[in-house]
Write a structure and sequence with these properties.
Elements lengths: L1 H34 L10 H37 L2 H7 L4 H42 L11 E8 L7 E12 L5 E10 L4 E14 L2 E14 L20 H4 E15 L4 H8 L7 H13 L5 H24 L12 H29 L3 H25 L1
Antiparallel strand pairs: 1-2, 2-3, 3-4, 4-5, 5-6
Helix pairs in contact: 1-2, 2-4, 2-8, 2-9, 4-8, 7-8, 8-9, 8-10, 9-10
Length: 394
């Protein structure tokens, strides 16, 4: 059995590696083609485009590995069927369960490789690729709005650990590749959402320990002559309050500072994550950013789904390899190897499309994030079990 396991491993690994390289070459060529219009603009040259495309490869490895495992396994099983090797193995007392067990052991290797690229390599290489690209072009990080980048955090009484005493909205016109913020505005509110200060700064540099060093600062403080009751607290009978922002603000004080230290939950890592594609983020980064969004009462569904997909998608390799096993039972008269590979490609494309479809449906229908991520794999697992049942009966 060890010899047979090794034989399966060598043949399937070679086939999967060949398919993965072919898919990566095709995707890299398409990436390079999309970069060509930018070549020659500013300092962005052909060598920069090649390096950028090369640094994108680890992210594509994570994407193509499930499909490569499916097509490579189908090719190997079809070859075994064509040469009657699989039939001889079955006659020699190899059961379907034993074959599935061998594929499962081989799948562990592919799952480990996928997790390695998805959790360790891609989250570090993808930001580097973007920084090199922006540095070569001499531009800053693009923002979602024309007014710049917006984010929100909680103001604490003592650093970032004390009780919450308000909230703060960040607005940075530009974010440089080195993480420096340019043309920064900070709007601070108390727990009743009354504006208490407006801080503008020419730039901000992160100093570590949740501290931003602001340069060329103008701070405007809105001071109250009285404190209004908590809007959520019940008022005594017969009490009425008529107030406007002007009545709540007794005075406005403005001061200018060359530098100012600001303590904030927002860090360069959170800012980089907020600009990143969730598909390029690690599960740990997604968990941290989702928690940050939840604490600030912002929408988290997209990142929850991306988090569970990061966990579930590599495990889908086991499902897709199980779906390839029935092809070993189909003899040459049921179709040549090329036809079976074509069917495998169609199954792989269908899996990617259904996986993407469920992600969008999950966000639109507010389905549980875990169910949204695991549903395509469960669907294809049922298809694999049905196919195995059919080939054993026929």
């Amino acid at each position: 059995m060890k010899i047979l396991q090794r034989y399966f491993f060598v043949n399937i690994t070679q086939a999967v590696a060949f398919v993965a390289v072919a898919l990566l070459a095709l995707i890299s060529f398409m990436d390079l083609t999309s970069e060509l219009p930018s070549v020659g603009k500013g300092g962005y040259m052909m060598q920069h485009a090649l390096v950028y495309v090369l640094l994108q490869v680890p992210g594509h490895v994570y994407e193509v590995m499930p499909v490569a495992a499916l097509i490579g396994t189908i090719y190997t099983m079809a070859q075994f069927a064509q040469s009657s090797e699989f039939t001889i193995m079955r006659v020699s007392s190899m059961t379907t369960g034993m074959a599935a067990g061998m594929l499962f052991k081989i799948g562990i290797v592919f799952v480990a490789i996928t997790f390695l690229f998805g959790e360790l390599i891609t989250p570090r290489v993808a930001p580097l690729a973007e920084r090199l690209r922006l540095a070569a072009k001499g531009s800053t990080v693009s923002a979602e709005f024309r007014s710049g980048m917006w984010t929100k955090d909680i103001v604490h009484a003592d650093g970032v650990r004390g009780p919450a005493i308000g909230s703060r909205f960040f607005n940075a016109r530009q974010i440089r590749p080195d993480g420096q913020l340019v043309d920064l505005k900070l709007y601070e509110f108390d727990t009743s959402m009354r504006m208490r200060s407006l801080i503008t700064a020419a730039s901000a540099t992160f100093s570590g320990n949740n501290i931003w060093r602001l340069q060329d600062v103008t701070e405007t403080l809105f001071q109250n002559s009285r404190v209004l009751p908590d809007p959520g607290a019940p008022l005594p009978a017969g009490t009425t309050i008529q107030s406007t922002f002007g009545q709540e603000t007794a005075s406005v004080a403005t001061r200018k500072l060359e530098t100012m230290d600001l303590v904030s939950e927002i860090t360069p890592k959170i800012l980089s994550v907020s600009r990143s594609d969730p598909e390029r983020m690690s599960a740990n980064e997604l968990a941290v950013y989702t928690r940050h969004l939840a604490e600030n009462r912002q929408e988290t569904e997209r990142f929850k789904i991306a988090f569970w997909k990061k966990i579930v998608d590599p495990l889908a390799i086991f499902v897709l390899m199980a779906l390839a096993l029935p092809f070993g039972y189909l003899h040459t008269r049921s179709g040549g190897v090329s036809l079976k590979i074509f069917i495998g490609i169609m199954i792989g494309v269908s899996f990617l499309l259904i996986n993407s479809l469920f992600s969008h449906l999950g966000m639109l229908s507010t389905w549980p994030a875990f169910m949204t991520a695991v549903a395509p794999s469960v669907l294809f697992l049922l298809l694999a079990l049905g196919a195995l049942w059919w080939v054993e009966r026929h």
